[in-house]
Amino acid sequence: MFEKAIEDFRKNGFAVIPDFIDSGFVEELKKRIHELVDNIDVTKEKMATDETVNPSVDIESADKIRFFFEKEAFDEKGNLKVDKHKALFRIGFALHCLDPTFKRLTFSDKVKALVKELGFESPRVAQSMYIFKNPEIGGVFIPHQDATYLHAVGDDLREAGIWFALEDATEENGCLSFIPGSHKTGLHRQYVRNEKENDPPFVFTKDNPDYKDEDFVLAPAKKGSAVLIDGLVDEDFVLAPAKKGSAVLIDGLVVHRSAQNRSAKGRPIYTFHLYDDKTCKWDPKNWLQPTAINPFPNLFAN
């Protein structure tokens, strides 16, 4: 069913699959997020979302539905400058465990068929996120490999993300861009628990490489698409637009990024990350670790 996408994924580290989700389900997903945001208390949920965020916030969110705001959504006094529906950066990291609507997509028969074609034997879903990329204030994602933050260990490493476009993802509103083939260059650095006391709780093992713009390619995605994500210099990146309803498959080791959204159109997406527990094991040095609420459920067993 997904032969061409799997071929592209193996070659480039990513693949765009149009029309993965039907329009009705796309709207259902967005409606559910709207309901969740309606019910939040901004005074309790307000927190930073850039690199200065306290790492403990992410740890505490590993098995919760937690709301993160864009830094630019607040004025110098800490008050919201825009409606809360337009102020959010992401929701993480356990939608796949705690919300029935997103659980239904994550563990759908179509997703299972795709992951099975990828060759996964015992796929476990480690985390999930809804990323808003709101109009005019949607933040940048710097070049990175997903495996930097979500790493498994083994000779046969199988890690991937699936990224679902809930509106058209274009160059204007910050679609993904990739360095094709960079998933074959190994893990560039890792974000790990720091064993030294009285130091930052998490550290990078190396500085970020100097990726070139010309190495990236865009990956546009139509609304409803899914993107498979594999997880060096800017000129290597290519854009990957995705239509609404598309899925983008992303290898855990492929280098990718997205620009700020300064357009008038949002770029909401849902994504989750998985690894094959049959061929590799979760790294105990990762910031994210399984809990009773988020035990990294097996995709095929749910």
Automatic annotation (TrEMBL):
Query: What is this protein identified as?
Result: Phytanoyl-CoA dioxygenase
What is stated as this protein's family in its record?
Belongs to the PhyH family. PHYHD1 subfamily.
Q: Which SUPFAM superfamilies match?
A: Clavaminate synthase-like
| Keyword set, alphabetical order | Iron, Metal-binding
Q: Which domain of life is it from?
A: Eukaryota
Q: Which cofactor does it need?
A: Fe cation
The protein's GO terms of the molecular function aspect are: metal ion binding
Originating species: Medioppia subpectinata
